[in-house]
Amino acid sequence: MKIWNILILGFAVILAGCAATGKTKEHEALYTFPELEQVYSIDNFRMDGWEEVDKYTIIVNSRPRESYLFVLSGGLIDLRFAQGLLVTSTLGKVEVGFDTVATPQDPMLKAQIKRIYRLKDKAEKEAIKQKIIAFADIEDKEADNKSTQ
Fold it and tell me: How much is the pLDDT for 22?
């Protein structure tokens, strides 16, 4: 009987992992922007300001009229209320897959930078913000549908 319980538990863990993978792939597709110029590092990085779009994305202003969209590997829930932003770098260079973002309120809770996109102008910045905000609406509706089922 004990072996049977272990097998059932193992099967449940596998099913949960598959469900999480499906959600991750959907999430991954949402936060891919082929219309934007993707970069893999930013040299001589200096942050002049930032804004939270949602818990997975931030727009960082690096120099006058130079902005980047950072897509994070995990959500940072307290971004909306953060008074500052901590971005790691090595010798002034920020790299995808290596550097992280955190807030001063919780510096130990870090999200890795998964993708960086260069935003060429204010119009592109606003368009991508609206697209990301629409993702949140989709995710909220999906969550509502699941809770009513």
Answer: 40
Listed residue (30, 35, 26) closest to 53, CA to CA: 30
As to burial, measured by CB atoms within 10 angstroms (0-12 exposed, 13-18 middle, 19+ buried), residue 60 is buried
Q: Is residue 78 classed as helix, strand or coil in its secondary structure?
A: helix
Alpha helices in the chain (DSSP H): 2-30, 122-148
pLDDT tens readout for residues 61-106? 987 778 999 999 988 888 888 889 999 999 989 999 999 999 999 8
Tally Cβ neighbours within 10 Å of residue 17: 10
CA nearest 76: which of 57, 50, 61, 94? 57
Query: Which of these, 7, 27, 48, lies nearest to 132 by C-alpha position?
Result: 27
The pair of three-digit structure tokens given for residue 110, joined into one six-digit string: 């870090």
